[in-house]
Amino acid sequence: MIEPTSVKAPRILVIRGGAIGDFILTLPVLAALRERFPSAEIEVLGYPRIASLALSGGLAKAVHAIESPGLAMFFAQGGSLDLEWREFFGQFAIVISYLFDPDKIFETNVKSCGPCQFIVAQHRPDEAKPIHASDVFLKPLEQLTIFDGDPVARLELPGLAKRKNWLALHPGSGSESKNWPEQNWRELVAHLLDHSPLNLLVIGGEAEGDRLQRLANGMPSDRLEIAQHIPLPELAPRLAKCAGYVGHDTGMTHLAAALGLPTLVLWGPSNETVWRPLGEKVRVLNQHSDLTELPLETVVKGINALDVEAF
Q: How far apart are CA 15 and CA 114, in angstroms?
C-alpha cells in the first residue's frame, strides 16, 4: 500500500533495490540531495526492511515498498499501469532510479506518468574501474549540479547512549569465501572474554545458521549476547550502542561503519577499492584475499588498534 504524504514541498524519489550493503552505499546520495535541496521531501522506493534505516537517520521523509503488487506492470512492456502508482510517480519533481533496467521498460513507464525529471543511475559499479561504489552512485547527481557529495555513508541515530565495553561481532556473511574460519572466531571470542574487559554482542541472520550458537556454547552468558534474526530497524540501534565492531565484507559491516563505530573488517576476495566501507574509523585487514591465512594475533592487534578509549 502506498503511504499518503500530504506535503506541498517539492518531492524527490530515490528508487533503490538490492541488499543492505547496496543501500548503505547509496546513503551518500540521500545526504547530498538533502543538503542541495533542504526544502524538498526526499522519499525512497525500496525494501522497507532495509530502506527504513533512512527514516531512522532522518535522510528520508517516507519509504514505499517496491514489492507492491501494483508496481508489477511497470516492469512489463505495454501493460496497463496501476492508476494509483501513475498518480504517485507524477507527483515527483525528480525521480532517480538505481534499478537494473537494461531495456528501459521501467524508465519508459515511469516517464509516462509525468515526473519532471527522470535520472538513470547505475545499479552496480563496474569493478574493472578503480572507482568506489559510493562515488559511482553519486555521479548521476551531477545532472542536479551536485558535484561534491561526501562518499562516506553516515547514519546518525540520535538519543542513543553507548554501552561501555561492548564489542559487536558478525562472524558470517552470504558467502563462505568471505568468512574467517569459524574455529578462528571461536578462538577470538574466548581470547576476548579471557584477556579483556569486553562484553560481546554477536549478530547474524539466516546466513549464519547455527554458527552463533556454536560460538556461544560454553562461553559466559553474562558477557555474551546473541542477536540473530533481528529486524534491521531494531538491530541498528543495538549495534550503534556498541563501542566497536568486527566483521567481514558484508552489509552489516557497512552499517556499522555508517553508524560511526570503530570498525575492523576482515576482508576476503571482493574488490576492496570498489566495495570497502569508507570512514575515518574503518580499518581493513586484507590477507591477500585468503582469510584462512589471517592469524588470530593479527586480528587481536587490529581490535586493540581501534578507538581504545571507547572501550
A: 16
